[in-house]
Amino acid sequence: MSYKVKIFGAGSIGNHLANASRSLGWDVTICDVDPEALRRTKEEIYPSRYGLWDDDIKLHLNDDAPKGNFDIIFIGTPPDHHNSLALSALEELPKAILVEKPFCTPSLKDAQTLSSKAEKLGVSLFVGYDHVVGLATRKVAELIAQNIIGNVETLDVEFREHWGGIFNAHPWLAGPQDSYLGYWERGGGACGEHSHALNLWQHFAHLLCKGKVSEVSATMDMIEKDTLAYDKIAAINLTTERDFKGRVIQDVVTKPTRKWARIQGTLGAIEWVCGSKPGTDTVYLELDDKNTEAFHFSKTRPDDFIAELSHIKRVLNNKSANPQIISGQRGLETMMVISAAYKSHFTKNVVNINYSSGFDSEALTQA
C-alpha cells in the first residue's frame, strides 16, 4: 500500500523523512514557512545526501499547502511548534501523525490536549525516537526475552555527542543561538536534543517489566550567556514505579561521540553501542567466565528513518509490530521525565511523576 504523506519542516529531519518515504514508494509533500528552506531542500540538502533531487516530491509554503486526504502527517519543525502543528494536523484526520523528538517543550503546553483529542478522533500518534526500532535494539529485546543475564540490577544509558554534527547538517546555522537548540525552554539543550537516551532507557525498562519512571533527580551544567540558556550536560538518576533504578547522561560536548547502554544482571550484562565503528551498531553479551559475544548490525543514516516508517506502516496495517514502541504515549512519557529533570535541577529536589494526572506540569511534584 502506498501512503500519501505531508511533512512540515524542510530542514535536515524533513529531508530524511522525505527520502525514507520515497524509498517506500510513498507520495510526498514537504511544507515550510520559509521559501529559502524549500529552495535549500531542492537544490542542496536532498541532492547532496541522496544523489539527486526527486521531482515527484512536491514543495509548498505552509499557507499554500494542500489539506486533507493524507495518510500520515509528519511534524519535523522545532519542538516549540510541534503541538500546535499537530493539533492543526488532527483536523485533517490522517491515519497517523509522527512528531519528531523531543515531542514538545518542557512546559508540556497542550500535550494532554493533543493526546486526548487524537485518541478521541482515532488518529495514531507516533514520536521520532528511531533508535528503539533499530536492529541493534531489537537484538537487545531478543536477549532480554531469553533471560540469560540473571536478575537485572541496573540500567545505564549515555548519549554524549558534541553538537557540531548537528550544525554540519544545518550549515545555514552559525551555532546554537540561531535555533531552538540553544534554549532549553524551546526544547533544545542536551536534555531535549539528545533525549534518545532517556527514551531508550524507558524502552529497556519496559522490556524488563520495570514500569514507568516515577522519580527523577537531575543535575545539569547550564549555560546562560547573552540570550542563550541551555544545559550542556544533564546527569539524571531514575527510579521506576517498581523501585528499579538507573541513570542517564546526555551532553552536547563529547567527541568522539559515545552512544551506549548497559543492562547489568547478576549473571552478566548486555551492552548496546551505536556507531561502534562507522556504519555499524553492536550489541555485546557478556556472561561470567565466558568470552564476550558481539552482534554487529550494518546501517546507514537513511536506514534509521526507513526502519522507523516501516514500523509505523506495520502498526497501521496491524502486522506484527508493537504499537507502543514509538507511540505518542511513549514520547510524552519521555517529555514528562525531561520536564521533571529540569524541575529537579532548578529546585534541587527529587521530583515525582504522577501519570494519572495526565501529561501536564501539575503531575510533577517535589518529593
In terms of topology, how is this protein built?
Blueprint (H helix, E strand, L loop, with lengths): L3 E5 L3 H12 L3 E6 L2 H16 L7 E4 L10 E4 L6 H9 L5 E4 L11 H11 L2 E4 L7 H12 L5 E9 L3 H6 L19 H5 L2 H12 L5 E13 L2 E13 L4 E7 L6 E8 L2 E10 L2 E8 L5 E6 L2 H16 L11 H20 L3 E3 L10 E3 L1
Parallel strand pairs: 1-2, 1-4, 2-3, 4-5, 5-6, 7-10
Antiparallel strand pairs: 7-11, 8-9, 8-15, 9-10, 11-12, 12-13, 13-14, 15-16
Helix pairs in contact: 1-2, 1-9, 3-4, 8-10
What does this structure look like?
With 367 residues, the chain is an alpha/beta fold. It is 32% helix and 29% strand. The protein has helices spanning 12-23, 35-50, 82-90, 111-121, 135-146, 164-169, 189-193, 196-207, 301-316, 328-347, and strands spanning 4-8, 27-32, 58-61, 72-75, 96-99, 124-127, 152-160, 213-225, 228-240, 245-251, 258-265, 268-277, 280-287, 293-298, 351-353, 364-366. A ten-stranded mixed sheet has the order 14-13-12-11-7-10-9-8-15-16. A six-stranded parallel sheet has the order 3-2-1-4-5-6, sandwiched between helices. A hairpin with a 4-residue loop joins strand 9 and strand 10 (245-251). The longest helix is centred in the last third of the chain and has 20 residues, at 328-347.
